[in-house]
Amino acid sequence: MLQVKNLSFSVGPARKRSTILNNLNLNIKPGEFVVITGPNGSGKSTLAKLTMGLEKATSGQIIFNNQDITDKNITERAKLGIAFAFQQPPHFKGVTVKDLLQISATGHETFLEDSETDYKKLIETVGLDESYLEREVNNTLSGGELKRIEIASAIARNAQLTIFDEPEAGIDIWSFEKLVQVFKKFRDKAPERALVIISHQQRLIKQADRIIVLENGQIASEGHPDDVLPQLQEAGS
Amino acid sequence: MKTLDQIEKELMQTVAGIHEPPAGAYNFRVNGKSVDRQSSKNINVEPQENGLIITVKADTQDEVVHIPVIISKTGHKEVVINDFYIGDNADVTIVAGCGIYNCGPENSVHDGIHTFHVGKNAKVRYIEKHYGAGPGAGKTLNPVSKFYLEKGAYAEAELEQIRGVDSTNRITEAELKDGAKILIREKMLTQGRQHAKSHIETILNGKNSVADIVSRSVATDESRQEFTLHIEGNNLCRGHSECDAILQDNGAVLATPSLDAKHVDAQLIHEAAIGKIASEQLDKLMSLGLTQIQAESQIINGFLK
């Protein structure tokens, strides 16, 4: 489904170039649930953003369903079947939560129909009640509420590949337990879809089929959680 | 009643949401003349020099009066003076608005001066939409709205300049007595070389009086907007004003807030934010499948909703 080939990403002026990703290669198969973890600055979020087209790679290729999407923009990638939940979702004055979910569910195959019940169920799935549907996605929402709405908007896309960039950030422990359940259900509902989560949280990592550990812009280790988690714990990661 | 042509009907629909005489009280003004007028049992609409006197009986509940103005004749210039007297405990909605269609070489101008005397514990919702269309020289709209709120009165003003108005100089003023409250929601979109000025001034004289003013605007192309928002607190009162603007192309916005607290218990707040659409907002909507143009449109429509 997703192939990343020799992907590099650097920032800064030529004399002080900082390499974030260095010749990275990885594959994500259909139906796979992958957690990408690693220390801060290891390139996890950059990899996610490059996949969605939010950043442009310095070199390398990104292939999605056998199509080279390296030069495609965000919209084109979204239409091809990639969804993305932002680590720090933006505010929108005058746009309601329901507006956002409707945009998410428009123009592609989705499990959401234009019915109140579907939106109500979806918002309840992420731990918010239906009154939130009419609220604006503005700064009256807390960071945790905004994050849950962001997760709901990514789920509403029902995409072939969904990437969640640190979904646990800004969410309290109680809500985080619920969030783990959300991802379990999301996966069960569409087992053919691939799910990639950028996370530090062991409870999420344990749910994955595979963990990829990034360090200094390269893959340090990967494998099943039972194999990789002990190494991570040993390393104090 | 004069039969409205298609252009006039469309203007009427855009600014007042109607193109036929509605139930209840109304006055249709087309090219400087009142072409149809009706009073209701509780709302009296009568002419005065250059305008109307509209009187709402005390205790009137949930009634609507429509007073749209249409200008479809190029070069037409008018000053309209409407005075409103809202009786104690009444609850009424006033739908105003002006649409100009100009297809000729001369500037068409509507200056509207509306004065609202809102009785004790009365509620008034005032909806005013301004719109310009046609390839002609100029469409100028200069509205003045003055609100005088008695004890416990409530006014809500929705002031909207939809598009197509080349020049506007908008003045909104309010004076509030004890327990009175006013909400002002202003929305404005300018394009091309249009110029818009808006001055909103609220004087909170009464104990526990409240003013909440939100102005949202979008300035595109080469257009320019100027806002001055002033709140004066002369008693135990609360005032909040917010001026948000989105810039596109070479659009420019000057916002000048001022708060004048003349009483130790006056709580006055101002917020302002002017800038282009945040790239994070575009990225988010594009990640949901919208093109950049669709995303910009969605953000602006939501902002001005």
Question: Topology of this protein?
Answer:
The complex is a heterodimer of chains A (237) and B (305).
Chain A: E1 2-11, E2 18-28, E3 33-37, H1 44-52, E4 59-64, E5 67-68, H2 74-80, E6 82-85, E7 92-96, H3 97-105, H4 116-125, E8 136-137, H5 143-157, E9 161-165, H6 173-189, E10 194-198, H7 202-205, E11 210-215, E12 218-223, H8 225-235
Parallel strand pairs in A: 3-10, 3-11, 6-9, 9-10
Antiparallel strand pairs in A: 1-2, 1-4, 4-5, 7-8, 11-12
Helix pairs in contact in A: 3-5
Chain B: H1 6-16, E1 25-30, E2 33-38, E3 43-48, E4 51-56, E5 63-66, E6 69-71, E7 77-86, E8 91-95, E9 98-101, E10 107-118, E11 123-133, E12 138-149, E13 154-163, E14 167-176, E15 181-190, E16 195-204, E17 209-219, E18 224-233, E19 237-247, E20 252-261, E21 266-275, H2 279-287, H3 292-303
Helix pairs in contact in B: 2-3
Q: Biggest sheet of chain B, strands in spatial order?
A: 3-4-7-10-12-14-16-18-20
Gyration radius of chain A, rounded: 18 Å
Strand order of the largest sheet of chain A: 6-9-10-3-11-12
Topology-level CATH name of chain A: Rossmann fold
Beta fraction of chain B? over 45%
Helical fraction of chain A equals: 25-40%
CATH class descriptor of chain A? Alpha Beta
Strand content of chain A: 25-35%
| Span between termini of chain B | 34 Å
Give an account of the 3D structure.
The complex is a heterodimer of chains A (237) and B (305). Chain A has one domain (2-235): Rossmann fold (3-Layer(aba) Sandwich). In chain A, 35% of the residues lie in helices and 28% in strands. Chain A has 8 helices and 12 strands. In chain A, the strands form 3 sheets. In chain A, strands 6-9-10-3-11-12 form a 6-stranded mixed beta sheet, with helices on both faces. A 4-stranded antiparallel beta sheet of chain A has the order 2-1-4-5, with helices on one face. A two-stranded antiparallel ribbon of chain A has the order 7-8. Helices cover 10% and strands 58% of the residues of chain B. Chain B has a 9-stranded mixed beta sheet, with no helix packed on it. Chain B is globular, with a radius of gyration of 20 Å. Chain B has helices at 6-16, 279-287, 292-303, and strands spanning 25-30, 33-38, 43-48, 51-56, 63-66, 69-71, 77-86, 91-95, 98-101, 107-118, 123-133, 138-149, 154-163, 167-176, 181-190, 195-204, 209-219, 224-233, 237-247, 252-261, 266-275. With 305 residues, chain B is mainly beta. Chain B has one domain (6-278). The model of chain B has no long low-confidence stretch (mean pLDDT 94). In chain B, α2 (279-287) crosses α3 (292-303). The chains are: A alpha/beta (237), B mainly beta (305).
